[in-house]
Amino acid sequence: MNSIQILTANEMRQLDQLTLQQQNITSYELMTRVGKYLFDFIITNNFITSEDHVVVVAGTGNNGGDGMLVAHHIHTRGIPTEIIIIGSQEQQTEESLKALKHCQHIPVHYVVETQDDSYKQLLDDATVIIDGIFGIGLTRDVEDPHKSVMNAMNQSYATVISIDIPSGIHADNGLQMGTAVHANHTLIVQNFKQGNLLNDAKDFSGLNHVIDVDIVQSLEFDIQYELPLSYLQGKLGKRHHNSYKYNYGNLLTIGGSKGMMGAPILSALAALRSGSGLSQVYVHDGDHKYLQNPYPDIMVDTYLGIEDVPQKIRRMDAIVFGPGLGKKNPLNMDILAHLLSTEIPLVIDADGLYYLKDLLKGYNTRGHLIITPHYKEMADFLGISIEDVIQQPVLYAKNIAHTYNVVVVLKGTCTIITNDIETYFSSNGTPGLAKAGTGDVLSGVIGSLLGRGLPPLDAAKIGVLMHSLAGQYAEEVYGEESMMASDVISMLPKVMDHVKA
Ligand SMILES: NC(=O)C1=CN([C@@H]2O[C@H](COP(=O)(O)OP(=O)(O)OC[C@H]3O[C@@H](n4cnc5c(N)ncnc54)[C@H](OP(=O)(O)O)[C@@H]3O)[C@@H](O)[C@H]2O)[C@@H](O)CC1
Ligand SMILES: [K+]
């Protein structure tokens, strides 16, 4: 497993400082090392060859300093190199000025005025552009002249290599700040920053490469790791010959209402395809007439009132509450209250979260509860705007996990899985998963793993990865536009090959 911690910009700065102290070096010496290691990586991977014409675009901060030192090494190799600096010499940091001194034989063009567009020709002539405009120091929206230069970079045919993070992407939340550089490769200095993974990051970063530059690590920060697909390997035990269906989890999905009856079926089917021994859907008797169950493998039962529920759930190993449930029936509140009063592991998804928000305060969840909101559901759950969640998704996910002792799966381009103490980032999904029903599939997969006895955090991590991998397979077959939630389910058998011991 990738054991490189994911940091905030502030934490990264602390590690930079710690490195200077522990290794007894100056900030410029560290920059020198970073520049050399970045260059070595670029050359070793043939991102630049002697045929290329390289333009390094630098800001006035240390991200630009890194860029200039890379320029120095490239130029020393005899590869045509030029530097564009956006801003004036007075604005440059001390380290950046020192780096510039190493570039005496390289043509340097300053872009200070918006009217000056002489840089455009340079960018047009480049075959490789190195982006050192902003790193973790970006704090506000990008304006001219930076904006115009970035737009010109994005129109160029050159290969773009961003240093640390695509310029214009915020290092803490991955949001594009007005505009951002579209990179083919991003060379991340030592640690993932949250912004390398969240929100807009994946649309701008190209391929991420983490470059080890010997910056010291700290055990004092919150545990935050990237979750690679390889984590899935062998996570589920063998299915023994001498076993029966109850060994693999008896799962109940409570959901469905008029117009949304497909949701619990998708969820229940995903659970069966993930190995559950039994999978049942439980719908309100009044809504039963709307249900069309094409799968005889999925059992369906109905309830009239709360009095039916205790007997029904008695033998369940896990329950998924919410897919397609709607927000209209007050009975759902009573059912959920009862579920929370039991020891049965729960996944609460979709409309289930609507009922949960009024109930959760009154219950000790004993950590047996997983909630799976997308950003909008998270915002509604907290009574805040979706913009707030987008700005600080990790913070809100951890806060809920901490306050209510639950595992939070905050679904997005980078799904955040946290129990507050440990947080995992999964960016393995595909844009094709942004389609109706895929959330129901995820809740079924996670429910299946819970029902099989996995601890909630493990069930959430493995479930998210299984769902992402199935999404990738579905995309290979149906394409990102056409793939549907049921296609994702149909790829689960292939995913199981990876997960089985
Ligand atoms: N030892 C070291 O130092 C190491 C450094 N390293 C490298 O340095 C990078 C961080 O460098 P950095 O802190 O100098 O900030 P950077 O990202 O270059 O930004 C420059 C300045 O831009 C400004 N600014 C912000 N927003 C703006 C906007 N919208 N429009 C216009 N201006 C804006 C803001 O200054 P302000 O104007 O706010 O005073 C900011 O200070 C890091 O990502 C890594 O690549 C690593 O290699 C490890 C060792
Ligand atoms: K950059």
TrEMBL record:
Reactions it catalyzes: (6R)-NADHX = (6S)-NADHX; (6S)-NADHX + ADP = AMP + phosphate + NADH + H(+); (6R)-NADPHX = (6S)-NADPHX; (6S)-NADPHX + ADP = AMP + phosphate + NADPH + H(+)
Positions that bind K(+): 63, 131, 167
Record-level Gene Ontology MF annotations: ADP-dependent NAD(P)H-hydrate dehydratase activity; ATP binding; metal ion binding; NAD(P)HX epimerase activity
Entry's transmembrane regions: none
Known EC number: 4.2.1.136, 5.1.99.6
Residue ranges of domain YjeF N-terminal in the record: 12-221
UniProt binding sites for (6S)-NADPHX: 62-66, 135-141, 164, 263, 324, 374, 440
Keywords assigned: ATP-binding, Isomerase, Lyase, Metal-binding, Multifunctional enzyme, NAD, NADP, Nucleotide-binding, Potassium
Keyword match NAD: yes
Cofactor descriptive note: Binds 1 potassium ion per subunit.
Keyword Ion transport attached: no
Cofactors, names only: K(+); Mg(2+)
Positions annotated to bind AMP: 411-415, 439
One annotated GO biological process: nicotinamide nucleotide metabolic process
PROSITE patterns: YJEF_C_2 (PS01050), YJEF_C_3 (PS51383), YJEF_N (PS51385)
Residues in YjeF C-terminal domain copies: 228-499
Purpose: Catalyzes the dehydration of the S-form of NAD(P)HX at the expense of ADP, which is converted to AMP. Together with NAD(P)HX epimerase, which catalyzes the epimerization of the S- and R-forms, the enzyme allows the repair of both epimers of NAD(P)HX, a damaged form of NAD(P)H that is a result of enzymatic or heat-dependent hydration.
Assembly and oligomerization: Homotetramer.
Record family assignment: Belongs to the NnrE/AIBP family. In the C-terminal section; belongs to the NnrD/CARKD family.
Name of the molecule in the record: Bifunctional NAD(P)H-hydrate repair enzyme
Annotated gene: nnrD
